[in-house]
Amino acid sequence: MKNIYLLLFISVFWVLNIHAQVFQSENFDGLTVGNVGTDVTGAVSGQGGLFTLDNTAQNSDFQIVDDGGSQGQVLQITGSENDTGTKFVWIGGLNTDWGNRTSGNDILEVEFDFFTGPATTSKNVFEVRIFNASFETLGGFSYTPENKTLIGLGRLDDMGTPTLFGFNLGASNTAIVLNENTWYRMGLAFDKTTGNLIWKGPGFYAGIATVDVGADPIEVDFMVFAGTLNTVAFDFKLDNYRVRAVNTEGLLGIGDFKTDLSHSVTLFPNPFEDVLNVSFASSITPTKMELIDLNGRLIKTITPSSIDNNAINTSNLNKGLYVLNVYSAEGKASKKVIKK
After folding, report:
1. Chunked mean pLDDT (size 10), the chain, 340 residues
2. What is the pLDDT of residue 19?
3. Largest interatomic CA distance in the chain
4. What is the SS3 string spanning the chain?
5. What pLDDT shows up at residue 330?
6. Residue 327: its pLDDT value, please?
């Protein structure tokens, strides 16, 4: 493993970026406990717009589960019980959102919570990766539950060839070893303009200059690999996922995902008939809204500019229960609504 470490001491990293654009945001609380979807070929999205791909073809390996604690509902990916199988989860559309980003927002930030799990002999490996249009890895994290170690992933020039390396993230190139059965929040940022890659989390704030100057990120995937000689399955749990574009890196800083925005969004009447009215507190600026049905399917995408006086026309919707996701630079709110 090649080890490179770079501390970043720029105070502006802690300042909330008012130009942030949230592209993807999910806390899984508005979804239904059970399988994420019914397709594991990566062709059809399931709940929350999540795509799943599994070359061992098991829908049950991708679940929305109740964590039973403060996390609420979370995404669970079950790693293989043998030494074969690779599982992928992602939300589509990032390439389009990135292409339509505000000028100057050339830094992609990925933030998420994940659970380390109990002691295990499983050799499954969990990774988060940012991909470019050629599906080369621009950056990521890699976690091994057997020894609870976390490393960074990034590409450097290796004798003229761009090559993916793993990086120890602790001070003086030391390994990051996490506690058992603990939730941690992680942050990863890729700067298209400079090629810089930054990792942030418990006990580390590190970065490198990669070879990928000018590259466009088009997808973020959660991945589980079955390790060599693996014989034990392992459940990986994720929560509070967010992807955004900013002009100044500010990972895990002010305006973090955990801010509760539910009180900042009001819906009326509820139940409603053909028109659903929505109002927002002055403290948030909505960027888009989504109506999701009980099966987690995206039924309607609404931009604030496309509605009159904050009234959403739902005359083409069937009667039933829906979840309205409201996205903003400050985070996400999910509200259950009923059409009668």
Report:
1. 38 44 91 95 95 90 89 94 95 96 96 95 98 97 97 95 95 91 94 96 92 97 95 96 93 54 78 89 76 76 81 88 77 79
2. 63
3. 65
4. CCCCCCECCCHHHHCCCCCCEEEEEECCCCCCCEECCCCCECCCCCHHHEEEEECCCCHHHEEEEECCCCCCEEEEEEECCCCCCEEEEEECCHHHHHHCCCCCCCEEEEEEEEECCCCCCCCCEEEEEEEECCCCEEEEEEEECCCCEEEEEEEEEECCEEEEEEECCCHHHCCEECCCCCEEEEEEEEECCCCEEEEEECCEEEEEECCCCCCCEEEEEEEEECCCCCCCCEEEEEEEEEEEEECCCCCCCCCCCCCCCHHHEEEECCCECCEEEEEECCCCCEEEEEEECCCCCEEEEECHHHCECCEEECCCCCCEEEEEEEEECCEEEEEEEEEC
5. 62
6. 77
Query: How much is the pLDDT for 150?
Result: 97
Identify residue 265 by its one-letter amino acid code: V
What residues are paired with 235 via a beta bridge? 78
Report pTM: 0.73
Alpha-carbon distance of 280 to 298, in angstroms, equals 22
Burial class of residue 289, CB neighbours in 10 A (0-12, 13-18, 19+): buried
Phi and psi torsions of 188, nearest 5° = -140, 130
Q: What is the residue type of 11?
A: S
pLDDT reported for residue 321: 83
pLDDT at residue 329, as a whole number:
63
CB 166 within 8 A of CB 156: no
